[in-house]
Amino acid sequence: MCRIFCIYCKKSILLQHKNARIIGITGGIGSGKSRVCRYLGRLCQMEVVDLDDICRKLLLPGNDGWQALKENIDSRFFQSDGELDRVSFRDELFKNKQFRNLVDSLLHPLAQKKMNHQLAGVEGMVLVEIPLLFEAGWQDYVDVIIVVYAEKVHRMQRIVNRDGVSEEQAGLAISAQYSLSRKASLAHYVVDNSGSWKKTCNQLEHLSEALGCKD
Fold first, then answer.
1. Distance between CA 125 and CA 134 in Å, rounded?
2. Sign of the Cα pseudo-torsion (153, 189, 213, 136, in order)
3. pLDDT of 122-166, one tens digit each?
4. How far apart are CA 23 and CA 125, in angstroms?
5. In 13-143, at which residue ranges do the beta strands (DSSP E only) sit?
6. pTM
7. Domains of the chain (ranges plus CATH)?
């Protein structure tokens, strides 16, 4: 597989929804996919659905995701006020595959239901940021897949700086997901976000033309 890529089409786009064209954007932790998603959404004037935001809301005390976890995982992952202890919860997710699989089985159906609700009635192109698109097996639910790529050294640095974790913890977070090379091989388009933001924006300009949302 080519290790240096700007933007290129990986395969023909087969899936088309009746009234909407769902553009799924994914990548690995620390690849910068959220920033890329926001910029492309503005560039193409597309509605953006953020699965991370959906999951954050699901995990608020009393909501469906929180309740599912409360009933199925150890109480040590919750604070005295009922809030999820996100630090210990995140650490366990990254180092314990069995725990991660349990959490995924509880939250993915709820997140997908919320996503479908937001997409109901949408017409035209809509951009959906799905961090675990391939891990969740949702690739067949979107019409176009965009993978945001970044070299591991850049991802490690971003995770450490953003989340205030050690390099070891950042490495565990990266290892818990599919490799970016594997994701890129399954994408229709790949955006390399290893360099400067200006270079990334140039790629997104070309991508907007390829998607047909810019003359």
1. 21
2. negative
3. 888 999 999 989 988 889 889 999 999 999 999 999 999 998 889
4. 7
5. 20-27, 47-50, 124-129
6. 0.85
7. 20-210 (3.40.50.300)
